[in-house]
Amino acid sequence: MNPQPLLIVVRELRASLRGILIALPLLSIAIFLLSSRLLFFLQERLAGKLYFFSVAEPFLAHAKLSVAAACFLLMPWLMLVVWRAAARPFRVSRLFVATMIFITTFLFYAGAAFCFFVTLPFGIKFLLGFSSAELQPVISIDKFVGFVVLFILAFGLVFELPVTMVFLGKTGLCGRGFFQRNRRYAILLIAILAAVLTPTPDIFNMALMGVPLYLLYESGIIIMKLARIP
User: Fold this and answer.
1) Given CA atoms 128, 130, 133, 139 in this order, what sign does their dihedral have?
2) What is the mean pLDDT of residues 159-170?
3) 16, 125, 158, 188: which has the highest count of C-beta atoms within 10 A?
4) What is the C-alpha separation between 158 and 42, in angstroms, rounded?
């Protein structure tokens, strides 16, 4: 395998990520000033009453939420940087890169929204359904923030699957035939991802992620066919 394209991508990323690394802490600080409202919104939507078990836990939870929200807002910029760097050694057109940036940004936010409005409410309701008069939930604010942030960001990223497939086909790294031949392995990997990333291991919640992810896989193959990528 020729390492030259990878070296070009790494060099481009190192040069372009500096701006994001500067913007991330500044935006995180700005969001921290509003983090109480953001936490209240998440709490009302998903959790109810929260508790803390150490002096620093509320501050750390607000800081973690602020950084995650900053990453969420900076995602279009990050997509711009990543796709420009990834496309440079393969000499793809600017229109193709612009299309990739738009679609990946849309899919990230679509995946995050799907997680927030569908998967997390069902998953948390299922988990808290095991409570009883003798077993009452006491949810840590830090654990709650970490739980919600992890799943929202993870769902956003895994929804990038069809765009990644199209890019691999466009650059000749993995063609449409490769993805068609390896459907069975793709289904296995999707099932593993669904088991790991969904908040509960039951079939229903796994299907909430696994089915859309498989449909995205198939849509990637269809898009490659329409684009005449072999």
Assistant:
1) negative
2) 87
3) 158
4) 22
